[in-house]
Recover the amino acids of this structure.
């Protein structure tokens, strides 16, 4: 795969480390659990969008853009990293935040990623939940043009064939690391939302003929819908890269059993996963994506989906900045609660 022909900037501390989790592996007594630390990509607290933004900002600069426009949920990690990347390359940044959760929680609306968006100097606008947000950024782009700017629009999650190239790179990195240390990876698991991470990973792994199955744990859409989203984007990315023939659709696998009440809504499994990783390995997951993704991994381990001795890699896609927006979900961490005996 010739990725050098695509415009790209450098944003990530790559390769991210591939770490064994000995304590958690012992705790469950199932497969060997590994974690690829894409939470440590380095861009304004890190996360998976940094990899996509290397190619997205690369394209923006090649088009002489002056201003980046994107969108996401209120506590979007994608928005935070996009604003940071735009800033680093001297571009203006406008973010439209979709109010998918409307419970008026001040942490959710003011802390975590929102605090960082403000700190990074984004122009923030809000929109009600459930509208076509990619249509909204197009409208903002037109306004910016009238003001003399050259806007570059980035869809939600940075998930288009350009952004997905970032996860083709991650697939190359992962195979290189597994070969380097003689680690035969049996399964990859990660959280899937706007589909770019899974599409890019699958295209990268298939194009290398890796033979490693990938399971996306959905944080929003039902299984069939999410598999379709991933397939469509994977095929586009496959074509964009110039791979021959059709992308093998059968490689796409999504489990949507861990969404709970909906996107961004806490679940018991998420709280358990975040807490276990913190207390056994000192690693921070996030409430919206990796907490639910890891909850899926834990449940599948308990159900015997993986055999003892198999090597399972969880891709930690970041998001811990969102923890500050979800203090309520982790109420038992409140020092005021410790007198009731909870630790
Ligand atoms: C965006 C995001 C994901 C999902 O990646 P997609 O490419 O949107 O599917 C997973 N984890 C975190 C922390 C994210 O911010």
């Amino acid at each position: 795969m010739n990725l050098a022909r695509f415009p790209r900037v450098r944003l990530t501390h790559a390769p991210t480390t591939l770490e064994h989790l000995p304590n958690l592996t012992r705790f469950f007594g199932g497969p060997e659990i590994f974690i690829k630390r894409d939470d440590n990509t380095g861009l304004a607290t890190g996360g998976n969008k940094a990899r996509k933004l290397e190619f997205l900002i690369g394209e923006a600069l090649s088009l002489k853009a002056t201003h980046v426009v994107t969108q996401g949920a209120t506590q979007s990690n994608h928005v935070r990293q996009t604003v940071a990347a735009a800033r680093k390359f001297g571009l203006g940044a406008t973010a439209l935040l979709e109010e998918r959760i409307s419970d008026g929680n001040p942490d959710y609306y003011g802390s975590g990623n929102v605090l960082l968006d403000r700190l990074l100097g984004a122009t923030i606008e809000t929109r009600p939940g459930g509208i076509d947000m990619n249509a909204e950024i197009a409208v903002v782009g037109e306004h910016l043009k009238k003001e003399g700017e050259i806007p570059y629009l980035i869809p939600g999650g940075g998930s288009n064939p350009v952004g997905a190239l970032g996860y083709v790179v991650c697939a190359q990195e992962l195979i290189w690391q597994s070969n380097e240390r003689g680690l035969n990876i049996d399964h990859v698991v990660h959280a899937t939302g706007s589909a770019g991470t899974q599409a890019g990973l699958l295209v990268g792994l298939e194009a290398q003929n890796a033979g490693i199955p990938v399971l996306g744990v959905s944080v929003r859409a039902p299984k069939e819908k999410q598999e379709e989203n991933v397939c469509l984007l994977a095929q586009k990315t496959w074509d964009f890269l110039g791979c021959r023939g059709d992308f093998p659709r059968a490689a796409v696998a999504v489990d949507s059993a861990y969404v709970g009440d909906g996107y961004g809504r806490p679940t018991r499994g998420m709280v358990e996963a975040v807490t276990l990783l913190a207390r056994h390995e000192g690693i921070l997951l996030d409430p919206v994506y990796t907490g639910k993704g890891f909850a899926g991994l834990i449940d599948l381990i308990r159900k015997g989906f993986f055999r003892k001795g198999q090597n399972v890699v969880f891709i930690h896609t970041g998001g811990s900045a969102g923890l500050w927006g979800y203090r309520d979900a982790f109420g038992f961490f409140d020092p005021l609660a410790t007198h009731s005996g909870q630790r």
In short: The first strand starts at residue 18 and ends at 20. The pocket of pyridoxal-5'-phosphate is lined by residues 47-48, 77-78, 157, 159, 191-198, 286, 289-290, 317-319 (CB under 6 Å). Residues 216 and 254 are 5 Å apart (CA to CA).
